[in-house]
Amino acid sequence: MTNSLLSIEHLACGYHQQAVVKDLSLELAPGEIACLLGPSGCGKTTTLRAIAGLEPVTGGEIRIQDRTVSSPQHQLPPEQRGLGMVFQEHALFPHLTVADNVAFGLRKQPRGQQRQRVSECLERVRLAGMENRYPHELSGGQQQRVALARALAPQPALLLLDEPFASLDLDLRRALARELGDTLRAENVTALLVTHDQEEAFALADRVGVMRHGNLEQWDTPYNIYHAPANRFVAEFAGYGSFLRGEVTEHQSVLTSLGELTGRSQAHLVTGQQVDVLLRPEDVIADESAHLALPVTRRQFTGATILYHLRVGASETLLCQTDSHTNVVEGDVLRVRLATKHLVAFTVSEQ
Known about the structure:
six-stranded mixed β-sheet; 22 strands
């Protein structure tokens, strides 16, 4: 027996003799919310479908509540796994009311229990009073709330969500992501979400898995994914950042073209080694009194903030994010100072 609700060991699966997921292992504790994050085609949706029982596995094992549900020799049908699923396409029944859609997975319960649970779930997703509407009478965001309520109604052991907000506009998807986190924690639901949006993953998840080419590059807390990435791919994918080339000194700092960078290192650095140091925008601070003045090659205005791209030498770039009152046009210089707290460095050969 383990303390994991979901346990995956050395999972392999794919399509038409082509491996899509390779040797993937992870564990998810009861009540945790996790996200699989990665670019399109990295295998995150295939992993989710394998957990759901919609794809056979060619290697490894998937266990839910200490019961093996998938292996090359055994495939438990999806309906026997105790799962809920929410897809990008809401997949609501157009001829059923909101209440009947939510009650669809409760058909074996007495009518009174069905009505009570439907009412609880609609209240939870802020759709109380809309029981008698039909899907075509709802907005996209409301339809997705109904899909979530329907998945939650049977109180599944594990909820799987495959990019449930991808078809919605940015403001709405951020609002619904916040609501989703509140709802899942209020219901004490264990959930695994697939997304390519790192902001969404960081806002929702207790654990994040970054995938590339079917491999799980890092399975960790959002904080460690951002501040202590396992490799350069994770560092570049999980948030804005730039790199400065430098050489490791005997004091475990890195000497760069902009001076010596110090800070707590995520790994032991070898003196004399050539490395690329990761600098996040918050490591580069706008300061009118700083001696370092770098040309602005690009500015991205978002309303509350401006992200500046600053040229360093012939080929390197730094990113600096300021409030929108610090308004410097392209071609002018921005005075900055470097304030590294975490020294994240990768060998020059590491990609």
